[in-house]
Specification:
Length: 298
């Protein structure tokens, strides 16, 4: 079920078009990755979904409600972790989570708040003021804030940018847990390896436009090739068009996913006994991304 549906979204800042006819949907229990270079329009899209910015054109539907007609109700099921850490220096962690629950009419939210503080390792720091927290703890607090009202749609704008390995890993675990609970998750990231591991589907966005979108594995298969390396005992003549490198007795081929490996090997006319070793490296989302942005070749 689509929790978030975006259709032909346009955002102009003055005469500059930051978002150009963007359409995609995010379903319950799905992690959707919005991937693109700096300035692609990712944060603009998130800001429109959270009503911080008004769209120039297009429609946003949240859980079957048009955002512009049911703003308050729609926003009550959205949680957002913004790209920029917003600090409220003088309040402590527990107070902030209590205030934030109040925005959603949750007056006595102690059970949920305690659970989140424990899960996000903020429990021992709950009486610290925000300005006393490290960058990583602030990020955890932003995530806890986004979750106080158990949202059905979670928007994470580069949540792992600049965080250490441990925190990155715990954010991944949390996102996976929320997915299992049926939360729809929209995730923007620069880290393509992370997107490849986490996202069920991705959209690659550049200059405000979605260039490609689809299931992560399908996109990789469509847009990249696997690399086959053969190490031979004895040198052979090879002029196969898929050959991209031949050094000493090592041949490297770029084999499209559309080609069966068995068929490909027969085309090489090799004697099996001549193969000392053989390695296959799968295509990556990073390669697909570079290909889409014309920074690389298949
Ligand atoms: N409030 C604004 N006024 C004018 N231009 C903006 C504003 N916010 C973003 N932009 C521009 O819109 C483009 C997209 O920005 P943004 O959505 O932040 O991209 P991303 O999050 O993908 O890096 C950029 O060129 C940015 O400079
Ligand atoms: Mg951004």
């Amino acid at each position: 079920m689509a929790i978030l549906k975006i259709e032909n979204l346009v955002k102009n800042y003055g005469s500059f078009q930051a978002v150009n006819k963007v359409s995609f949907a995010v379903h319950s229990g799905e992690i959707f990755g919005l991937l693109g270079p700096n300035g692609a329009g990712k944060t603009s899209i998130i800001s429109i979904i959270t009503t911080v910015e008004k769209p120039t054109a297009g429609s946003i539907t949240i859980n079957d409600m048009k955002l512009n007609q049911h703003e308050k109700k729609a926003k009550s099921i959205i949680g957002v972790v913004p790209q920029e850490i917003i600090t409220h220096g003088y309040f402590n962690v527990e107070e902030i989570l209590n205030f934030h629950s109040g925005y959603y009419g949750l007056i006595n939210n102690t059970v949920r708040i305690n659970e989140l503080m424990k899960k996000l390792e903020l429990w021992d720091h709950r009486h610290k003021r925000v300005r006393q927290l490290s960058g990583g703890m602030k990020r955890r607090l932003m995530i806890a804030k986004a979750l106080v009202h158990s949202p059905r749609l979670l928007l994470l704008d580069e949540p792992t940018a600049g965080v250490d390995v441990e925190l990155r890993y715990s954010i991944w675990q949390l996102v996976k847990e929320l997915k299992k609970m049926g939360v729809a998750i929209l995730f923007t990231t620069h880290y393509l390896e992370e997107a490849e591991q986490l996202c069920d589907r991705v959209a690659i966005i550049d200059k405000g436009q979605i260039q490609k979108q689809g299931e992560t594995t399908t996109l990789i298969q469509k847009l990249t090739s696997r690399h086959l390396t053969l190490i031979l005992k004895n040198k052979i003549e090879c002029s196969h068009p898929a050959l991209i490198n031949y050094q000493n007795n090592t041949l490297e081929f770029r084999v499209p996913y559309s080609k069966e490996m068995g068929k490909f090997l027969s085309e090489l006319n090799l004697q099996r006994e001549n193969i000392l070793d053989m390695k296959i490296r799968e295509g990556t989302l990073e390669e697909a991304f570079k290909y889409v942005l014309n920074q690389g070749e298949l």
